[in-house]
Write a structure and sequence with these properties.
The structure is a single chain. By secondary structure, the chain is of the alpha+beta class. The protein has 2 domains: 4-69, Ribosomal protein L11/L12, N-terminal domain (Ribosomal protein L11, N-terminal domain), CATH 3.30.1550; 74-189, Arc Repressor Mutant, subunit A (Orthogonal Bundle). 44% of the residues lie in helices and 12% in strands. It has 8 helices and 5 strands, in the order βααββαβααβααα. It has helices spanning 22-26, 33-43, 74-81, 101-111, 120-134, 143-151, 156-161, 168-209; strands at 4-12, 51-59, 65-69, 97-99, 136-138. The strands form 2 sheets. It has a 3-stranded antiparallel sheet. The chain is flat, with a radius of gyration of 32 Å.
């Protein structure tokens, strides 16, 4: 058994290529790059649209290799599962989407080997925690509430039986909720844009009214705190009694 050389890269699931950085790192090792790429794409085809950590371990004497595939971050897997581009960014103000507990289990099973947990229930709780930071509801509820229900054993059936898809009825309910959430997200964007436009308009108006910096007051104009100088030849105003 010869010396081992390890090449690590981050590739898009199912779309690895011989181009840099993978190809340029494998080239000097004299391995069959085409075969390596083909195997990586086969092993990562379920992660299309996501970045996947890959490790290629090469035996420098025999040129044989083994490939180890990591898993994308939990947040990516969650959003991929519900066709979401990104999290909320304002989790306490507006929600980003909704996911079923069955889909949570599916993601937890994919990530289980890379999580520092003792059992599947703990893995599920970890994935639910990721939903909380992204502003994603679980079964239509706040993740914090779901975590308590997991501890109470409410989802033991899903976890113990490995259920990864919600029932048709449940899916319909969650799809309707997802549409409502999407509508609120769009309204939130419109409100923020309107507020920004109003602030910019107010700033322009204030700038138009304010005197230019360094401008000299017109002759005879009163300076704040001072009495205007009398115009030459003008009779003084009658004193008020």
């Amino acid at each position: 058994m010869g010396k081992k050389q390890i090449v690590e890269a981050l590739v898009e699931g199912g779309k690895a290529s011989a181009a840099p950085p993978l190809g340029s790192s494998l080239g000097p090792l004299k391995v069959n790059i085409g075969l390596v790429v083909s195997q990586i794409n086969d092993k990562t085809k379920d992660f299309k649209g996501m970045k996947v950590p890959v490790k290629v371990i090469v035996d420098m004497d025999s040129k044989e290799f083994t490939i180890e595939i990591g898993t994308p971050p939990a947040s990516q897997l969650i959003m991929k599962e519900i066709n979401l581009d990104k999290g909320s960014g304002e989790a306490k103000v507006v929600k980003a989407g909704v996911i079923s507990m069955e889909q949570i289990f599916k993601v937890a099973r994919m990530k289980h080997s890379s999580l520092i947990v003792n059992n599947m229930k703990s893995a599920v709780k970890t994935i639910v925690g990721s939903c909380q930071s992204a502003g994603i509801l679980v079964d239509g509820k706040e993740p914090s509430e779901i975590l308590k229900e997991i501890d109470a054993g409410n989802f033991d059936n899903i976890i113990e039986n490995g259920i990864t898809e919600p029932s048709a009825e449940k899916k319909k309910i969650l799809d309707e909720l997802a549409r409502d959430i999407d509508s609120k997200k769009k309204q939130r964007v419109k409100d923020k844009e309107a507020a920004k436009a109003a602030a910019e308009a107010a700033a322009k108006e204030a700038a138009a009214v304010a005197p230019a910096p360094g401008a000299t007051p017109a002759a005879g104009a009163a300076t704040p705190g001072k009495t205007a100088a009398p115009v030459p030849g003008a009779k003084p105003a009658a004193a008020k009694k």
